[in-house]
Amino acid sequence: MKSNFKLAPSILSANFSNLQSALDICSEGGAHWIHVDVMDNQFVPNLTVGPPVVKSLRRCTQKFIDVHMMVVEPEKLVEPFARAGADNITFHYEAASNSEKVIDLIRSSGCKVGISIKPNTSIDKIYHLLDKVDLVLIMSVEPGFGGQGYIKGSDQKIKNLKSYLNQNCLDRVMIEVDGGVKLHNAKHVVDLGADILVAGSEVFKSSDPVSTIKKFYKLAS
Q1: pLDDT at 1 over 50
Q2: What is the pTM of this model?
Q3: Which is catalytic among the residues 24, 37, 134, 155?
Q4: What is the distance between the alpha carbons of residues 87 and 62, in angstroms, rounded to a whole number?
Q5: Marked catalytic residue, from 131, 134, 171, 178
């Protein structure tokens, strides 16, 4: 397992009455990124946070803020999240009528660009866009709710994407995996090619979240 993977705890599973505590946990545990799931109750059946929460997080942390927009018409929210302090903005291929336009908007906002696909979307649907993005987020559960189990079919997607990136000299594009990532399968997912692991309930619902974050990194030592 490569030692330079990044863990991105998802605050969707944190205590929203005390997000400072969640940031403290991530800092003490040594997590690299903070993952923020944005849901609009249209693209997915849930409603979560908006730019004001990201703005509040930005005031309290220097960590990389990774915004995952599970929303319709993602182009309308790029600028608000960029102004709020996002470092990376990821949108869903399935939600965009013009993916290249959204990519250009994110890039011009000064943020890194991510594109995501749902479990039933074939990875080859986005191959033509990979030279324009910084990361690909593979959803290994159906987006909308935390705490779901990892979909085994995600393994082949990760492997196929990693192979395509290597063959086309696109190694700079990172692979992020979100959904059902636990301590028992983290090494397997990274060995398949993942560079970033998103973990929500496994971290924040554990009895000792700081220790859990550290255990993720010990898997690479």
Answers
A1: no
A2: 0.95
A3: 37
A4: 10
A5: 178
Contacts of 2 (CB under 8 A, 6+ apart): 190, 220
Band (pLDDT 50/70/90 cuts) for residue 195 is very high
The residue ranges of every structural domain in the chain are: 6-218
* DSSP assigned state of 124: G
d(CA 94, CA 64): 25
The residues, any chain, with a CB within 8 Å of residue 177's CB and separated by 6 or more, are 137, 138, 140, 154, 158, 189, 194, 196, 197, 198
- Both tokens of residue 212? 């859990």
Contact, 127 vs 164, CB < 8 A? yes
Is there a catalytic annotation at residue 178?
Answer: yes
- Distance CA(198)–CA(177), nearest Å, equals 6
37 counts as catalytic: yes
Q: Give the dihedral of Cα atoms 32, 195, 91, 145; nearest 10 deg.
A: -80
How many whole angstroms separate alpha carbon 100 and alpha carbon 123?
Answer: 17
Q: Which CATH class is domain 6-218?
A: alpha beta
